[in-house]
Design brief:
The chain is built from five helices and two strands, in the order αααααββ. By secondary structure, the protein is an alpha+beta fold. The protein has two domains: 34 residues, no CATH class; 88 residues, no CATH class. The longest helix has 18 residues.
């Protein structure tokens, strides 16, 4: 329904959906047939659970889109909804195409170690 539309396209072609998003907010808005941020977080929690069991001690590359990158940050850094929304709203932190967000395990952090953000949104030339 909204595939391929910018926010201006949604406002023009789907004004009721645009109004609903404005009322509910970007974070909780679930377009018809789509996902909102909490839906993505639920899916990623499941993925991270499997990943931590099956990839212990290995490096892993995950290729994904911007919303998934941001929700990974929320989960891995224990960000609040408001902190995530602030990052998402900051144009200077907008996830760039082909950018790299890198986490490394700090074995000394906590009982089982912790993934620590090393780099966010870095473009390699």
């Amino acid at each position: 329904m909204l595939d391929g539309l910018t926010k201006h396209g949604i406002a023009h072609f789907q004004p009721a959906e645009h109004e609903r998003r404005a009322r509910i907010g970007k974070y909780h808005h679930r377009p018809s047939g789509g996902e909102n941020y909490p839906d993505v977080a639920l899916r990623l929690r499941s993925f991270l659970g499997k990943l931590t069991r099956k990839a212990v001690g290995r490096s892993v590359l995950v290729v994904c889109h911007s919303v998934v990158v941001l929700v990974f940050r929320k989960l891995l850094e224990c960000l609040s909804e408001q902190q995530l929304q602030a990052i998402d709203a900051d144009k200077a932190q907008e996830v760039q195409n082909c950018s790299v967000t890198h986490y490394a395990c700090d074995a000394s952090a906590g009982k089982e170690g912790k993934l620590i953000l090393q780099d966010f949104n870095r473009i390699y030339y």
